[in-house]
What we know:
The complex is a heterodimer.
Chain A: H1 4-47, H2 51-64, H3 69-81, H4 85-98, H5 103-115, H6 119-132, H7 137-149, H8 153-166, H9 171-184, H10 187-200, H11 205-217, H12 221-234, H13 238-252
Helix pairs in contact in A: 1-2, 1-3, 2-3, 3-4, 4-5, 5-6, 5-7, 6-7, 7-8, 8-9, 9-10, 9-11, 10-11, 11-12, 12-13
Chain B: H1 2-30, H2 43-50, H3 76-84
Amino acid sequence: MKLAKPVFLAALLLGFASTYAGVASADGFFHRLRVDSLMSDGITLYHSGDYKESLGKFDAALSLSSDNVEARYDRGLDLYAMGRYDDAAMEFRACLKQQPDFMPALFNLGVTELALNDSDAARSIFLQIINDHPNSVRAHFDMGLSKFLSGQPDQAAREFAVASLLHPQYVQAHYDRALAEYRTGNLVAADSEAGEALKLNNSYAKAYFLRGAIRLRQGNSAAAKGQFETAARVASDPVLKSLCTQILAQIGA
Amino acid sequence: MKTRAARLTFKIFRFAMLGGALALLTFAVQHRAVPAQASVPGALEIADHALTIPAAVEDEGPYRLIDPVGPGGLTRDAAIGEVVASTMQGGNYGDHQYYSQYGPQIYAPPASGPHGGYNGGPHGGGWGGHR
């Protein structure tokens, strides 16, 4: 009987503690559930193209969980889609500061640097990814874009060649390689790669357009005319159609 | 007689003057100052110019960025896999960069010649920015 009082007190204390822990744990659970729900809504809105609403969801998620690197990353995607490249780059950098090995943020930062016309920064990011993952088709392709946009078509052609070797069905890699070769003056390689792109997609208007330009450079106006006519027929881009019309008028004159 | 000769001389003089005036008028019409016309770019010049602007290059289109990560999106591992993969995941490939997004007048070669720089297209912006 003497022991009854301390045992009762201990049990009471344990009861209080477990109740408190249970409440705290439930709080944590509901907090996490709320953040996850906001994230899920934000991602759905992003995929439906409602970037502004999506951004609001990620902002709300970050206000509940400021160290949520995924919410910050997703926020960066919305900012990029809204054309706010500086802000997007800032978010991706913040992700990398928090988690330096968060590679999707590093890659997307490279793409954002390209959008900001900072080819040097973009190149350095894609080189970093290529050094760690030499088979990354995306890194090689975007390295090609960086080099092409900074006026190094010969080096761009090499990167596009690696991308198209890694993934031979990658139409854009073949087309971009053709364009880079055209810029270096290697019309034979340009023609061959444009042909590869057209084998994979026979309604690729820009590839026909490029082939038309190659034929013009080769002095074959008749063949060029055929390519521009096809480009005009299959193009869904009104400006590309208009360009073809302008060129055909000049060839016909 | 003198009057008749004078009249004839006057007639000849009048025809000569009229002829001269007509000749002058014809000359003036043929050689009148015309406003300077912009030279029409040739086919190769138009094509070359179109192939130097950013819209000529293709990107990955809707697959340009790695997708959202988190509930309802990619797992972290799947997102990393997208970066390092040796193939592009999913995808309909073809025209993604449309010339029309740079405005309707891109085919007018710039004054500096057909090989302008890449930065600052007609809309002055960068190269990216579409999904």
